[in-house]
Amino acid sequence: MHGSAEGHGSGGGHRPDQGPDGGSGERPGDLLPGAELLEDLLAGTPEEEHPVTHVHHLPVRGSRTLPWPAWVDPGLRARLEEQGVSAPWRHQVEAAQLAHDGTSVVVATGTASGKSLAYQLPALTRLAEDPRACVLYLAPTKALARDQLASVAALADPSVRPAAYDGDTPAEERDWVRRHSRWIVTNPDMLHRGVLPAHQRWSSTLRRLAYVVVDECHAYRGVFGSHVGHVLRRLRRICRRYGADPVFVLASATVAEPAAAATRLVGAPVVAVTEDGSPRPGATFALWEPPLTERTGEHGAPLRRSAAADAAGLLADLVERGARTLAFVRSRRSAESVAEQARRLLQDRGRGDLVRRVDSYRGGYLPEERRELERALSCGELLGVATTNALELGIDIAGLDAVVLAGYPGTLASLWQQAGRAGRAQRESLVVFVARDDPLDHYLAHHPRAVFGRPVEATVTDPANPYVLGPQLCCAAAELPLTPADLPDFGGPVAEAQLDELVAAGRLRRRPAGWYWAGRGRPDVDIRGSGGEPVAIIENGTGRLLGTVDGGAAHATVHTGALYVHRGDTFVVDELDLDDACAVVHAESPDWTTVARDVTDLGVVRTDRVRRLGTVTAHTGVVDVTNQVVTYQRRRAGTGEVLAEFPLDLPARQLRTRAVWLTLDADAVARAALDDLSLPGSLHAAEHAAIGILPLLATCDRWDLGGLSTALHPDTGTATVFVYDGHPGGAGFAERGFAALRRWLLATRATVASCECESGCPSCVQSPKCGNGNDPLDKAGAVRVLDVVLDELAAADEAGTGAVEVVTAAATAVTPNDPAAPVGDTDGTADEAGDEADEAGDEAAEDAGRGARPAEDDLVF
Asked: Bias category Basic and acidic residues: which stretches (predicted)?
């Protein structure tokens, strides 16, 4: 959507598009532009099945260039001009100039706008001028890191010796990287586990560090982003110890308040460059809602054709027309399923020649599988790929004609990042957003202004989260004793209070000179918040490693009896061994899928703030959540019909987090015309819909959130609806809901009331992860509950009442039950720890926020 793929592309020159076979493919020369391609795809569709709800046209944008800065190294400029880059775009020069002058900068422009050149110009010039200088490059995924490594290698002088330092780097090469590479490509996990704890071994690099590049920095949000912010503060602190003061250059998608977000991340002032000077070809962007079918789901609710099925059909249709296409899906299983469905459709149409040119891409593949898929996609051997968000970030994929988004990716920033993968220099591209059968997607499909007329979100982080700050202070103290002079970087008074708790817990020792790590080995801290070590998937009989899943997701995805899909092949789990972190599977092709069911309990720890709205009160504060996966269902593939349910014996998991909750007194319940029978289902339905819509306002998705509703909660004494963050300590999402309560509930009410179903369906009040099997649900009652809350909000606003009140802290501590709980001791080398973190982290980046998959409302009666 924004021109050629990012790589190191720059204004004034375009690389020629490759054919689908790497330059000699059979790609049709008469591929239709986006608008006509969409019309062709829809030809012959019956009116009652017409899926497109809105079409938006993105206009062509011309390029704006500036002359090469005089300070650019002549050799670097010559190599760029040899690659067809005749003049840099304006934003590239502006950001490069700031970095060259010693000012930390974030360049926040569209996909494929050549952000890489903004840091390559000053950094490679500095390396050419100073043979001792070094650069550290950080990427959130290994695919992006390897792509950028190739880009730098093509531009750098041989003396730079760019190299990767991640979990795929052989042990025998790591010492060479430390000693000889001057452009080190790594990720936050390896920096946290493998570099900073071993800073003495890295001292030669750290004392010569001139630039730190943080690519795709918008990916660092929520708990993970808060951890990364502290990792960067630790890096700056150690660099100061060795006499270095590197300039930070950050690259970001278009986000709100990029300078403020980057400053929060780095912990030091950062200025922003946001005016995009790159050209953008036109694009046609369609909102697509699959039609209702004759099938029914739980409790007779009408079902739409699935987004995955429509995405697979679109992928096959586009590949058949010669359009190079990415189909973004929401889960690993969907990536496998969509690719397999598309291949089957092509085979059924007699296009067996195209079957081999469709594949899937996701985390959990072995490194060599990932590399081969990336190569085949980049050179054009593959025409269509179904992928998770693992390919959302800036890996260089030139010449894509279309992008299909099977479901809202959680944030507008991600939506535009994924959509921006489509774009060719002289041809309008096509983007199709296919709505899933859930409240948020339904809302977006019918409210195009929420997609095209709304600014992207600001990045949400909370560095003061005690589950983040405490462990990070332990890491910092283990690297170098903390002194009072260090505390402003880590939050000042908040950090000092946390240090007192860590000393009391025996994790740190207080000495006149500062705070010292008191543990054995080094602190063991998971910066992804992904819920434990990865679980290996092992094939029974052969011992073959098929892949891995995030530890936090294992209970729900690879429990005993679960169906597991790997590159189109299906397996059934024989046993999940949590002690050994492995799931043993055997090959099987059943006609069913599996869905885990769980139960949840929630207790209020502390109320921080309230808004008293007459008969309704809104609260935000700290809660304890206990969740346990207790059964799983076998459901018929394609229809979702429940075939059987089986018990599971898995341990309960506990979470202290932040929540927003609404209480309705007896008068509010009476005004909503609810009795003892209808009240639980009405609250339950309102809670489902509210969880589904909150990602519209917060940088999260449904899987980042959990909830619970009850007609009488023991801690509130009345009817209550809770929505909580699914991360230890919270991630700011529930608090965002509290702050934007009226907007949140207005959108929720509009979604439920406008849905064409009679009594509730997945597009409005049913949830895909309901611990109670979506029973009971009362759609009409939910609308009345929301009406009462909104009426009270409006009345309070009109009367000038309902202001936020800060509640006096309760006796229960603000910090976790055990402030040292997230921090263990780890033996072994930093390299070994880095490997583990790197492998877990690369997959957690794909499934960000979906580790423990918080329960969406075990309804409490």
From this structure: 847-861
CB 22 within 8 A of CB 381: yes
Beta strand 283-288 pairing with 429-434: parallel
Contact (Cβ atoms closer than 8 angstroms) between residue 644 and residue 688? no
The reply to whether 307 and 246 lie within a common domain is no
Last residue of a domain, one of 426, 452, 478: 452
- Please tell me the pTM assigned to this model: 0.78
Helix 74-82 with 142-155: angle, nearest 10 deg: 110
Q: Are 854 and 726 in contact (CB under 8 A)?
A: yes
End-of-domain residue from the set 258, 273, 288: 273
Residue-wise pLDDT tens digits, 121-163: 999 999 999 999 999 999 988 778 888 999 999 999 999 999 9
| Separation CA 703–CA 290 (nearest Å) | 22
Q: Is 396 helix (H, G, I), strand (E, B) or coil?
A: coil
Q: What is the CATH number of the domain that holds 516?
A: 1.10.10
- Statement: residue 559 has pLDDT above 90: yes
Question: Which residues are within 8 A (CB) of 783 and not within 5 positions of it... i.e. 6 or more apart?
Answer: 749, 752, 753
Using DSSP, state whether 284 is helix, strand or coil: strand
What is the torsion angle, in degrees rounded to the nearest 10, for the CA atoms of residue 77, residue 78, residue 82 and residue 84? 30
The answer as to whether 445 is a domain residue is yes
| 806 pLDDT tier (thresholds 50, 70, 90) | very high
Per the CB < 8 A criterion, the answer to whether 577 and 584 are in contact is: yes
- Using left for φ > 0, alpha for ψ between -120 and 50, and beta otherwise, residue 828 falls in left
Q: Give CA–CA dist 209/203, Å, rounded.
A: 10
Looking at the fold, whether 560 and 680 belong to one and the same domain comes out as no
Helical axes 142-155 vs 367-379, angle rounded to 10°: 60
Segment 221-240, tens digit of pLDDT: 878 899 999 999 999 999 99
| C-beta separation of 105 from 95 below 8 A | yes
